[in-house]
Amino acid sequence: MEKLEKYYHQIKNSPVFYGMKDDELQGLLECFNARIRNFEEGEMIIRQGDRITNIYLILEGAVNIEKDSYWGRRIIITQLSVNDNIALAFVASKNIESNIDAVAAQNTRVLVLSYEKCTSMCQNACTRHKVLINNLFDILSKENIELIQKIENVSQKTIRDKLLTYLSNEARKRKSNSFEIPFNRQDLADYLNIDRSAMSFELSKLQKEGLIKYNKNKFVLSARV
Amino acid sequence: MEKLEKYYHQIKNSPVFYGMKDDELQGLLECFNARIRNFEEGEMIIRQGDRITNIYLILEGAVNIEKDSYWGRRIIITQLSVNDNIALAFVASKNIESNIDAVAAQNTRVLVLSYEKCTSMCQNACTRHKVLINNLFDILSKENIELIQKIENVSQKTIRDKLLTYLSNEARKRKSNSFEIPFNRQDLADYLNIDRSAMSFELSKLQKEGLIKYNKNKFVLSARV
DNA sequence: TTAATAATGTTGTAAAAACAACAGAAATGT
DNA sequence: ACATTTCTGTTGTTTTTACAACATTATTAA
């Protein structure tokens, strides 16, 4: 339990527990059987078919939400990072199996809470549960909007349009024309559902045309985009 | 307010209000300024850029959630039907503008509730609000899972794989190999982000190969799919 | 019933993507 | 510093898709 102390401030200010008083949070962390788990890059945190009963809060690192298609191709649905929750939607619908994998994209530290344990104990009656569920509702709303955004990105017709849509959406999100993306080329291709080499080719083309500049994961969009 | 009576039973048993006592629901409908609105096929219920402050519950009909791509192509994100809520994610994130259109896919009857009005009045304190937010959390979770499902559908590489993935997901959802889909051919193409005529061609091919049978919107999957 | 309109299916052609194979650059480990 | 491995970019070929144009079948209206 001592290790929790180190992250207490971060936990308290995370969207899940935002607005909770210290004593409420302390009690909740105990009641939730809170513990910290570490995952190495590439390690599976959640597998397709799992039933999720825990709330996962990312304290350090990043996690890819993936799906292997029936024919073996990898689909990256989204990448989560610090302060995000993993597979929250499956916690509420507890009789629905996870249809996604969660894979550590780097070495990752996660706070794990037994949601089930708390709801059974406090019967939804305590104030901290009320704050929590409000927060969870907000978080899920934002996730929902993110997923719609992603659908827009991958629904473009050409590789070019997918790239431009993705990049300009990222720029808008960060309120800057200059930003880093969390993906390497292969991951970006798996996120946009396109071939890596074809994507590389189109990126160069966009750079030659002066629409974008990039170096590794750092992108700069020209005003024209 | 009399018109509400006609739908009272349906409203009471809808996922949003599920588990609410009669007096709670009655009070809530008043406090929410509940009213019924009708939309004709093709009419816009929500537009990109709107700020959503109402909860919309579909009582009759169906609604397409759409987005016009920058280049003018139509994307159907999902189709909602009776008992579904429209654009719920944007109600929670009230300072985020809608990035989607909601268009009546048929003549549609909708219950409209001012979410804002209630939250400001009851300060999240009344029991009915607690039941409501729990329900909303559940609904958003399911929507989330649906969106992930849709991402899987459109992330397949070929038209054939998109169709087979979509159809077998539908079959699983309805627990039957025989089912109707809510789309005509053009809408299905816009949902899967593919060309209608190419899709028609592939559908015939699948039928010739004996993998599927179809007539209009009614599909039957062979055991091999 | 017939004409008009809409929806769906079919085909050929041009465009785009996937794929494979490889070259060069960057990162990693020893 | 060197060898090894991983990542990224490039090119040519094959496959798939979009698009356009039209045929056929349903649906609607007169």
Strands of the biggest beta sheet of chain A: in what spatial order? 2-6-4-5
Low-confidence stretches of chain A: none
Categorize the overall geometry of chain A.
elongated
Succession of helices and strands of chain A = HHEEEEEHEEHHHEHHEE
User: What's the end-to-end separation of chain A, in Å?
Assistant: 50 Å
Strand content of chain A: 15-25%
- The strand count of chain A comes to 10
Oligomerization state of this entry? homodimer
Structural class of chain A: alpha+beta
Number of helical elements of chain A: 8
**Cα-based radius of gyration of chain A, to the nearest Å:** 19 Å
Determine the mean pLDDT of chain A.
Answer: 92
Helix content of chain A: 40-55%
Largest binding interface between chains? A-B, 42 and 42 residues
Q: In this structure, how is the largest beta sheet of chain A organized?
A: 4 strands, antiparallel
Task: Indicate the topology.
The structure is a homodimer of 225-residue chains.
Chain A: H1 2-12, H2 22-31, E1 35-39, E2 44-46, E3 54-60, E4 62-68, E5 74-81, H3 88-92, E6 101-104, E7 108-114, H4 115-122, H5 127-154, H6 159-174, E8 178-180, H7 185-192, H8 196-208, E9 212-215, E10 218-221
The structure holds a DNA duplex (30 and 30 nucleotides).
